[in-house]
Design brief:
Blueprint lengths: L1 H32 L2 H27 L4 H21 L1
Helix pairs in contact: 2-3
């Protein structure tokens, strides 16, 4: 039984290492191929998406009590993502 767990843990670690290598090679090629303006816009889009996800998490945890504020936050963050995506 311990041998099976050992094999599974080794496989998971190897897969994690290969996923990490793929992600690192993606970041290196992304930095080399894109200008700083595109990276800045991408960072802004990621920030707006995080705000959107945090607002949705708040809605799921606490409900829609200040409904106007929640709708404004969701619509503004989604609109910012769409408008920033048009600039790319």
């Amino acid at each position: 039984m311990n041998k099976i767990n050992e094999i599974k843990s080794i496989d998971i670690l190897e897969q994690f290492e290969s996923a990490k290598d793929i992600f690192n090679s993606f970041l290196i090629s992304y930095k080399n191929q894109n200008s700083w303006k595109i990276r800045l816009i991408d960072t802004y889009v990621i920030f707006c998406f995080i705000v959107f996800v945090v607002t949705l998490g708040y809605v799921f945890l606490n409900g829609l009590f200040p409904m106007n504020a929640i709708l404004a936050s969701l619509i503004c963050s989604l609109g910012s993502i769409i408008l920033a995506g048009n600039k790319i």
